[in-house]
Write a structure and sequence with these properties.
The chain has no helices and eleven strands. The chain has about 110 residues and is mostly beta strands. Strands 2, 4, 5, 6, 9, 10 and 11 form a seven-stranded mixed β-sheet that branches. It starts with a strand and ends with a strand.
Length: about 110
Amino acid sequence: QVQLVESGGGLVQAGGSLRLSCAASGTIFRPNVMGWYRQAPGKQRELVAQITTGGNTNYGDSVRGRFTISRDNTKNTMYLQMNNLKPEDTAIYYCNLRQTNTYWGQGTQVTVSS
């Protein structure tokens, strides 16, 4: 089993920044893929960004150029640096890990005020 714990969400004004963290614990295999997804009220969950064990990254179109995903494999921790935040970035952000199985964190709320 794997446990994922997100932190770093909160309320920020448009144009501001936040940094999310996701700490993974339990039985973790490598290689794996970790990612951030988000879900706004009334909308489907969407990919924000993902990163492989080797550091290859992929971003959703709406965040490319503003968000940066990274990970520290020695700490089994993933980060999401979010800059130039917009009100449409408001959502619950979920951490995801894919190895043999797929695991999700409980989510952290990000609210961007205009």
